[in-house]
Amino acid sequence: GAALTVTDRRRAKEAAERVCARWRAHQMSTFDFLMALNTLAGRTFNDLTQYPVFPWVLADYESEELDLSDPTSYRDLSKPVGALNPKQLEFVKERYGSFEDPEGVVPKFHYGSHYSSAGAVLYYMIRLQPFHWLHRELQGGKLDHADRLFHSVGATWGNVLHNTSDVKELTPEWFYQPETFRNLGGYELGTRQDGTTLGDVVLPRWARGSPEEFVRLHREALESEHVSAHLHQWVDLIFGYKQTGKAAVDACNVFYYLTYEGAVDVDAIDDERERASIEAQIVEFGQTPAQLFRRPCAERGGARPLRRPLRDAPQLLEPAGAARPLGEGIAGGAVQHVVLSPDGRALALSEGGTLATHRWITPATLAAGAFSFAGGQAAAVT
User: Fold this and answer.
1) Contact predicate 29/149, CB 8 Å
2) Are 282 and 274 in contact (CB under 8 A)?
3) What is the pTM for the complete model shown?
């Protein structure tokens, strides 16, 4: 794909507005939209502290079947992860209200950890290189205890909902890379206290034990109409106007001050120890993306008009109007094979050996519906 280079903040914000307009017009997928925003906000696969961030989109990791038409299958995108659980929400509100730094250096915050950090990325990606070795490096040359490693999708979601110190969102790999959930390298990840030896990630039952099926359904959820209708609220939290100021406070979306861009001018710190300490804290806590929007992100419209209904959604076409053969139809029984020729014709072979040719007629040339057929000479195949 084409490389994207952002030269300054103003151009990044202008580009972000164009990206939003394309997404709202259904000219790009939700996945591509989020990747574009991450890039414009300074996120990159080359920096664990500024890794691209994606949202948890589902809330159902227990059912036998995943119903993507049920709104309760989805996470509430209008709230930060740490505010999804009402009890957790009350806790972070109380912490924000009661916190006072005696030295007056640290402002109030709801969360002491961050939704995107090097630790969170390595947690998810530990079964792949170079992340496995980077995890070891972060842990002083060894793996963390097995009970703290990524073991189960459902258990990780449960921890996010109930642990006030765990507010991590997801990485893009959850939506396209099944290998993230397999221990293809055969790494010895240890044994949990309950005796479980870690291997592949435990997936929801609706994934049928298949990482490919899990990623397929997870991506389908991301591209769903439900997520399309609510994703703008998550964009406001992560990249937009609810990132800072009163809007962030009202949304319970305030993180530790060192995670924000420009919170500290590291280059202006003369004391080497203090500078090293600040840099270490930034690496540990993670970084909030650069703010791209000062106003609310507009909601995406309804389902995009289908330009190719026969290909994209054949179930929506009326059987009587989907194809209109001229004449009496094809002799020789049911059609067994259809082949598209280089000149755009469709060649249909019936079970009786009759070959018929058809050509596409667009609505621009025939006001008879989205698709029509024009029958040609039928020739018997001997």
Assistant:
1) no
2) no
3) 0.77
